[in-house]
Amino acid sequence: MSAALDGIRVLEQGTFITGPCAGMTLADLGADVIKVEGPEGDPYRAYQGGQYSPHFQAYNRNKRSVALDMKQPRDRELFESLVRQADVYIQNFRPGTAERLGAGVAHLQTLNPRLVYCSISGCGASGPYVERPSYDSVAQALSGFLSVVVDYRRPQFLGPALADAITGLYAAHGVLAALVQRGGSGRGSHVEVSMLEAMAHFAIEPFAAFFALGDTPTSADRPRLAQAYILRTADERLIAIHLSSLEKFWRGLVAALDAPELGGDPRFNPREQRIAQYESLRLELDARFVKQPLAHWLERLKAEDVPHAPVNRIDEAVRDPQVEHLGLIVPVQPPHAAARAVRGALHFDGACAHAVRAAPLLDEHGMAIRAALAREAAWPPAAAAVERTNAGGGR
């Protein structure tokens, strides 16, 4: 596992996705992340029943878990002992909740002036929407992002929780910058990010187009300008092609299709015409691609160097030759439930993770953490994580 953040200590008091994703991102980079949960655990644990949903596993690997009741003086004292030794604290409560729990930024940075405190919210820490509950779908819609990905003729949400995960990545990005800043100043800072701000920034290209051109972008703009198509083949598979702005890719597609009539059709030449006639060209391509199976088109497009890929299902992506070559799927240790996972995306000096540590059971490390703090009142060493304890056993 990459140890770029070796020695960085993180307390994560996050639930569902945004906070846990930020913590997982730092953990994947080698930080020692202790997840602080309430007695009932992160609600995402029970997303599909039980206490260990695959959704929870996805965003909580490489962490330790301790369950604390912040209303109990002894657990508050233990929490503050961890804060005094931490480099980073992450929470994604509604604004005001952290202060009520005794975990507000002013209090924690009084305990530890070097602490980088990261708070994640739905719409920001103030303003007319501050009290609104905010989830992934709400942030996608409010930010404008959803308008440039949804088909207005048949509107439906995209599958993954994009706003949640993207906001978590922005939070981790901010934490890393604050740690660099602390290296010079010696003091921590307060990193704030909302889902609204993260998703608006993520949609920076359509915003830039609006400001420059005055036209309101739609979901049709990007594929039309990029000349990107999703096409169905004779065996009911889907294939994606992306012609971009280089004329050679258009010529390659014409050759792969053995369709010189398209190459000479004034409706589709030059590129500006293909953009203007996007729907007409899509129908022409549909009519041709549906005549042959996927394997035929993969071979033909590769031979003509046209950017393309099959629309892999997850089970197919796992077996894709390039995914296997990169070692992107790694074992989970120990395999509490899922035996494999997608490793972190980054390489450092040619090295990447070859395994991930399983997401913790509720309070899995509570006994070891409590015992270490009782002995030395210092941050419990990560080595304590290898000794499994019964959930709730340290309470």
Question: Strands, helices and their partners?
Answer:
Elements (H helix, E strand, L loop, with lengths): L8 E5 L4 H11 L3 E6 L16 H6 L3 E5 L5 H13 L2 E4 L5 H4 L4 H7 L4 E6 L14 H8 L18 H24 L4 E5 H8 L1 H10 L7 H6 L1 E5 L5 E5 L4 H11 L2 H4 L7 H6 L1 H12 L4 H10 L4 E3 L3 H6 L1 H6 L2 E5 L6 E3 L13 E2 L8 H11 L19
Parallel strand pairs: 1-2, 1-4, 2-3, 4-5, 5-6, 10-12
Antiparallel strand pairs: 7-8, 8-9, 10-11
Helix pairs in contact: 1-7, 6-8, 7-8, 11-15
Number of helices: 18
Percent of sequence in beta strands: 5-15%
Number of strands: 12
Uncertain ranges: 384-395
Just give the CATH class of the largest domain. Answer: Alpha Beta
How many domains make up the 3D coordinates?
2
Secondary structure: helix percent: 40-55%
Instruction: Kindly identify the CATH topology of the largest domain.
Output: Rossmann fold
What is the CA-atom radius of gyration, in angstroms?
Answer: 25 Å
Average predicted local confidence, pLDDT: 94
The end-to-end distance, rounded to whole angstroms, is 31 Å
Shape: elongated
Oligomeric organization of the protein chains? single chain
**What structural category arises from helix and sheet content?**
alpha/beta
Sketch the topology as an H/E string, one letter per element: EHEHEHEHHEHHEHHHEEHHHHHEHHEEEH
The CATH homologous superfamily of the largest domain is named Crotonobetainyl-coa:carnitine coa-transferase, domain 1
Task: For the largest sheet, list the strands in their spatial order.
Answer: 3-2-1-4-5-6
Second rung of CATH, namely the architecture of the largest domain: 3-Layer(aba) Sandwich
Question: How would a textbook summarize the main sheet?
Answer: 6 strands, parallel
